[in-house]
Design brief:
Elements: E1 3-5, E2 11-13, H1 19-27, H2 32-70
Antiparallel strand pairs: 1-2
Length: 80
């Protein structure tokens, strides 16, 4: 993949797509750049979430174990 800067803060890049997918996307008038950006943004968000869960797994497990053993700390104050 090659990357080149543009004046609006965006980077031009080359990507490889299956030919049939590209033909169908163009036929449906899908903006390839926009669709690719949305897909990469989702992949980044998904990976960040996965890494956060990995980094915080011990704390989450500890908190869940506490609630299982003792219930919710402020459950007596809930009105629903």
């Amino acid at each position: 993949m090659s990357v080149a800067s543009t004046s609006n803060g965006r980077k031009a890049t080359n990507v490889s797509l299956r030919a049939a997918l590209l033909v169908e996307a163009k036929a449906l008038r899908i903006n390839i750049s926009q669709a690719a950006e949305l897909g990469v943004a989702k992949a980044v968000a998904d990976r960040r979430a996965e890494l956060w869960l990995q980094a915080n797994r011990e704390a989450l497990d500890s908190s869940n174990a506490y609630v299982e053993s003792h219930g919710l700390p402020l459950a007596g104050y809930r009105h629903f």
